[in-house]
Amino acid sequence: MPHIGNGTARGKHPMITHQKNIRYITGIRNGVLIGFRYFAFRGPVKLTLWVRGNGKGKFLISDGTKKHRTEIKIAAKQEWSSYAVKLTINKTSPLYMQYKGKGQLEFLNLELEEIK
Predict the structure, then answer these.
(1) Residue 78 near residue 52 (C-beta atoms within 8 A)
(2) How is the chain split into domains, by residue range?
(3) What's the fold here for domain 3-114?
(4) Whole-angstrom Cα distance, residue 69 to residue 98?
(5) Which of 49, 50, 78, 104 would disulfide-bridge 109, Cβ 3.0–4.6 Å?
(6) How many CA atoms lie within 13 A of 75 on its CB side?
């Protein structure tokens, strides 16, 4: 289960919701942080995020350190769409994604695929 935080002062919070048998995070706005603990990273992976909405911006990707490792640019559509980036981490660590941008997103899933 992901940790979800709101980095904005608006008082609006993201939440986990569902539609039929699909669970997803809704209400993702500028500053929202989504975190997963822990992954055993062993080198480069392809990180793919599945999102939808009207948001345009980027997710800053971090392993829990103060600076971000990479970013994924997002120009969301009304249907679920995938956005991917190469990520290299060589340790067991959390994975944090902070949205920076305009509009609102919904987050369905993330995939980690080992790159050989």
Answers:
(1) yes
(2) 3-114
(3) Jelly Rolls (2.60.120)
(4) 12
(5) 50
(6) 0
